[in-house]
Amino acid sequence: MDCSGYGGWDLGVHFVDNQRIQQLNHQYRLKDRPTDILSFPFHDANGKPESFKEQALLAEDTRNLGDIFLATPYILDHCRINNERLTDHLPILFTHGLCHLMGYDHELDEDYAVIIVPF
Question: Between residues 28 and 63, which one has the greater pLDDT?
C-alpha cells in the first residue's frame, strides 16, 4: 500500500458466507440479495478521492481505510460459472473494493475509468 500513499493505514478484510453478505447488502444498500463484495469506508470522501489524501495527515489512530467484505461462496460460484480461476478473479475484485475505500465510485465517468476500465 505504500505506492498508493496509504502505507501505515489499517484495512479490515472479512471473508463471509452468502447469508452474511446478503444481510449487509440489505442493511446498508437496501438490496436483499447476496453479492460478491461490499466495501465500507471508514472516512467519508464525499465522492472525492483526493479528500483521502488530505486525510493522510490525520493522527495515526484514524488512519483506517475501512472494511472489505468478500462472500467466498458467491465468488467461488462466479468463478465456476464463468470458467475463471480464483487466483485471477480475486485480485481484481479486491482492487475494485479497495478503490471504493479510497473514494472512487463508478457512478461517475472519470471514476469508472479508474476503477473498471483497467480490468
Answer: 28
66 contacts: CB under 8 Å, gap ≥ 6: 11, 12, 39, 40, 41, 42, 43, 101
Residue 52 C-alpha cell reads as: 483521502
Answering whether pTM is above 0.85, one says: no
Query: How many other CB atoms sit within 10 Å of the CB of residue 118?
Result: 9
What does the domain layout of the chain look like in residue ranges? Answer: 2-115
Which amino acid, one-letter code, is at 81? I
Return the CATH architecture of domain 2-115.
Answer: 3-Layer(aba) Sandwich (3.40)
Helices and strands, number each (H, E), in the chain: 5, 3
Q: Which residues contact 112 (CB under 8 A, 6 or more apart)?
A: 106
Residue 112 neighbours by CB distance under 10 Å: 13
Cell output for 62: 484514524
The candidate with the shortest Cα–Cα distance to 19, out of 4, 33, 5, is 33
